[in-house]
Design a protein that fits this description.
Layout (H helix, E strand, L loop, with lengths): L6 H13 L5 H8 L3 H13 L4 E3 L5 E3 L8
Antiparallel strand pairs: 1-2
Helix pairs in contact: 1-2, 1-3, 2-3
């Protein structure tokens, strides 16, 4: 059975994505002291909480900005 992601950890991950847009999951994981898989597995949970993240074709993660998406 999969463990539920820690709310504080999810918040930390999202704030790192905001602070370092375009970084890959592995880089963010190093900054947070986590495994890459922990960051990757947390992405759907971030979306469930309304913290939308998108990934570019090189694996970089970015916070989704609704204001700029309607261009």
């Amino acid at each position: 059975m999969a463990r539920k992601p820690n709310a504080l950890r999810l918040e930390e991950i999202y704030h790192k994505i905001e602070a370092y847009p375009g970084k890959r999951a592995a880089s963010l994981a190093r900054l947070l002291g986590l495994n890459r898989s922990e960051v990757t597995r947390s992405l759907p949970a971030l979306e469930e909480r309304g913290w939308l993240v998108y990934e570019d074709d090189r694996g970089g993660l970015y916070p989704f900005d609704k204001a700029n998406s309607q261009n």
